[in-house]
Amino acid sequence: MKSVPTPKRFTSFGGLTGKLRIPGDKSISHRALMFASLAVGKSEIRGLLEGEDVIATSKAMTQMGANISRGSDGTWRVHGVGVGGLLEPLEPLDMGNSGTSTRLLMGLVAGHDIRARFIGDASLSRRPMGRVIEPLSQMGASFEANEGGRLPITMHGAYPAVPITYRLPVASAQVKSAVLLAGLNTPGVTTVTEPVPTRDHSERMLRGFGADLEVEECNGQRIIRIHGEAELKPQQVIVPGDPSSAAFFIVAALLVEGSDLVIENVGLNPTRAGLAQMLREMGGHIEELNRREIGGEPVADLHVKHSLLTGIDVDPAIAPSMIDEFPVLFVAAALAKGTTMTSGLEELRVKESDRINAMAAALTLAGAKLEEREDGLIIHGTGGDPLSGTGNQPVTTHLDHRIAMSMAVAGLASREGVEVDDTRPIATSFPNFEALLEGATA
Ligand code: S3P
Fold first, then answer.
1. What pLDDT is recorded for position 296?
2. Cα of 415 to ligand 1 centre, how many Å?
């Protein structure tokens, strides 16, 4: 990331039209690089997200022995070291802004007899790592962490680690995946129970790479068992487009008059599909075209048209399937007719920023009417009128890409525009966001 903040003003340009293709899914891209690095032989990955977070994973896997290169056609080639073959990194693993890289890689290191030091930027260094330290310590790894279980952290993995049966105390795909990845090189069966289902990309892709993994559904819970000392076979992976990135264009097209947009290649895994469901309930026109399967994941093109939205009560049970989309849902709610109530969203306070507080402050500055609660926002929408905008005072993004992009969308739906203090973090997940936005509003 560049050393000086890059402010930018986002203003209304008329509708979003035409077709655009959003980049690869961030969650799937991290996993593709990690699992390919643990397979014996050469895997190829197409459609990989080339954002800073994923590049941090790629560098870390290289530091631990994988051979990773990018061809001129954008195909990534990975020669893996085999499960159990990770090397001790000589330098600290710099995770930048990426919680997913950090927590999943801690899981991988936990099952190897190696030491690794994890460092990250100011946002990542504020985020809680105790949630992975706890189960991975039960498996035999040891940790020296900064106060409150935060980065920088030096950890020592264990071989053989001890298989555990772990019930997730928070709905977190990162914690689930960390334990499963530690289980990959652990003798015996490691079991994770999730009371509320979270994104299942690790389970789908580990199976695709040949791991012995069972998923049992029982009274709404999921029990996942992975058989350790697995042998992963190299694969050809195609990464579908990221629904969390599509979210900004979906909401922008719904809010800005005159919009009629097709967003191609959007991943529609049911564990990620909550936002589209909520926006449809609010009256949004979102049509699925050409539904198909890519890389073991459901995908479609989305046709989105400007719509007048109506406020709703968002059931907290849907939160895990749209956990990264709340900032932009708050923007949609700010322009809806009536009130939108959200609750049960405490997890949003420990993302790249405290997203409840950051969005409350930013939207209020842009002229929205809302109340902040400990576990969510209550938003009284304008009924379709544009927000006033921020004047000359910029909104603060706190090194959080999703706050920056959500407030860019709010800017498109405002009279005077929204000044965003720093657009640099957008490159962590969606490097061509501004270019695609310019193309769609041209
Ligand atoms: C992710 C899981 C989610 C999500 C993050 C990506 C993943 O985090 O917010 O952006 O790839 O597993 P939590 O597991 O903390 O909910």
1. 85
2. 34
pLDDT computed for residue 3 by the predictor: 82
C-alpha of residue 396 to centroid of ligand 1, in Å: 22
Query: Is CATH 3.30.450.20 what the domain over 8-24+240-440 is classified as, yes or no?
Result: no
Active site residue 354: no
Output phi, psi for 407, to 5 deg: -75, -25
The SS3 call for residue 424 is helix
Distance 116 CA to ligand 1 centre (A): 22
Could you tell me how many helices (H) and strands (E) the chain has, helices first?
A: 12, 21
What is the structure's pLDDT at 315? 97
Helix (H) or strand (E) holding 112: none
Q: Are residues 21 and 265 in contact, defined by beta-carbon separation less than 8 angstroms?
A: yes
pTM tops 0.85: yes
Confidence (pLDDT) at 46: 98
Q: Which residues of the chain have pLDDT under 70?
A: 2
- What was the pLDDT predicted at 419? 98
Give the pocket of ligand 1 (CB within 6 Å): 27, 100, 172-174, 177, 199, 323-324, 347
Q: Where are the domains of the chain?
A: 8-24+240-440, 26-238
Q: Say if domain 26-238 classifies as CATH 3.40.710.10.
A: no
Q: Please count the other Cβ atoms lying within 10 Å of the Cβ belonging to residue 69.
A: 11
